[in-house]
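Example 450, ligand flavin-adenine dinucleotide.
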Amino acid sequence: PTAIHWFRRDLRLADNPALLAARDAGDVLPLFVLDPALWEKSGDPRKHFLAGCLADLHEATDGQLVIRHGKPEDVVPALAREVDAVSVHVAGDTGPYGRTRDTAVEKALGDVDLVRTGSAYAIAPGTIRKDDDTPFKVFTPFSRRWREHGWPDPAPRPRKVSWARADSEDLPEAPDLGDTELLEPGERAAGKRWKQFLDERIADYDDQRDRPDLDTTSRMSAHLHFGTVHPRTLLHDIAESGQKGPGVDTYVTELCWREFYADVLWHRPETAREYYNDELKGMTYASGKHADEDFEAWATGRTGFPAVDAAMRQLLAEGWMHNRMRMITASFLVKDLHQEWTRGARYFMQHLVDGDLASNNHGWQWVAGTGTDAAPYFRVFNPITQGKKFDPDGEYVRRWVPELRDLDAKLVHEPWKAPDGVPEGYPEVMVDHKHEREVALDRYAKARGR
Ligand code: FAD
C-alpha cells in the first residue's frame, strides 16, 4: 500500500513522528504542496529559504519528493486517488490557517484518513493548562508548568524508507538575492548551525543575546518555523550536552515563549488580528496619505534613526532581524508614528523568513501593550539610546546603512551631530522622538479612559 506523507512545517526526516506513522502504513509518497495562498505572499528571502529546504528534502528522499502546485483541498485528494493511497499523514498544524485548511482537506479526502501525528512544538498547544483547566494568560506560570510537564524524547530518524513514486512538478526556483549572506536552508544546515551554537555560544547566551552587531543568537527561528529542526531535538541535545547555567536556562525560556504564543493562538485564534486585551480597543491611529508616507519611510529604512533604518534594511535584505531590533522597530511604528500594530505585523510576516503568526503577531501585541502579560504600554523604546547601548561600536548600523559608514562609534547613532551634518543621501530624522513619545502616552491614556 501507499501512504502519503504531506510535508508542511516539518521539512526534515529526523525526529518526525508523522513520517514514521506514514512508513508504518506503507510505501511513503513524500509530498509538498506549493500553496499559492502562502507562496505568493512571501518576500524573496522566504521564498529563497523554502526553495532551499525543499531541494535538501528532495535529496534526502532519494529524489522522490513530489511537488504539486495548487490549493491543498484540491491537490491532496487528487493525488490520493491517483496513487490509491491508504492514508495521508501530517504533523498537526495548530495555527488558524492550517487548522481550517486541514479540515477542508480532510473533508475532501472522503474515505482516506488524514492522520495527524505530533505538532511543531515540544508540547502541543492546548496541553498546558491551569489547575482549573483554563489556559494560562501570563508567561511565567505557563513556563513553570511547561518545564514541569517535560517533553518526549526525539523520534528516531528512519533508517530506510521505501519511497513511492508519482509525477512531480518542478521544485520552486530560489529568487536571486545577489550577494546577501543568507541563513543556510535545510535540515543538514539546521543541524550544523545548531551544533555550533550548542558547542560554542549557548553558555554565554544570557549576556550576549541582546547584541545585534554580534552573531550570538542561535538563528533557529526559520528552522523551527519550517520544521527543518524540531524543538524536542534542541531540548534533548541541551540536556545531553550536560551544560547548565544561566545561558542554557535563558535559551530554554526563549523556546518556551514560542510555545506560549502558539498556545495563546490555539485557544484564541482571533488574536492573530484582534487585540488580546481589549482595554485599548478604542485607540486612535494616524491615517491618510501622511501616515502612508510615514509607513513607507519606516518600511524601507529611511526614518533618519540609524538603528531603526539598519534593522528595516536587514529585514528586506535577509528576511531576518535581531529580537532587540524587532522591539525597537515595532515600538517606533506604533509609538513614534502612531500606527496600528496590525499594519507592521503584516509587513513583518511578508518579509520575515521565520514569519510565524503566533510569535510575530503576539510579539507586536506585546510591544503595543495589547497582548498577554500586561506589557507596560507606557514603555516607549528610544531608538537612539537603545542603539548606543546594544550596538555600542555602531558596527550593526554601518553594516546595513552604507551612508553612515564613515562615522565613528560616537556619531553613528546620532549622525546629525557630525561636524558636517547628516551625511549626504541619508535622511534627516522624520520625527522628534521626545515629542512623539508624549503624544503616544497621551493617546494611550485617552484610550484607557484616564
Ligand atoms: P534566539 O535568541 O536564538 O532564540 C531561540 C528561539 O527561541 C528562537 O528561534 C525562537 O523560536 C524562540 N524565541 C526567542 N524569542 C522569542 C520571542 N520573543 N517570542 C517567541 N519565540 C521566541 N519569532 C519568530 O520565530 N517568528 C516571528 O515572526 C517573530 N516575530 C517577532 C516580532 C516582534 C515584533 C518581536 C518583538 C519578536 C518576534 N519574534 C519572532 C521573536 C524573536 O525576535 C525571534 O524568534 C528571534 O529574533 C529569532 O532569532 P534566533 O532564532 O536567533 O533567536
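Summary: The pocket of flavin-adenine dinucleotide is lined by residues 209, 217-221, 224-225, 254-255, 257-258, 261, 322-323, 326-327, 330, 348, 352, 354-356, 359-360, 363-364, 367 (CB under 6 Å).
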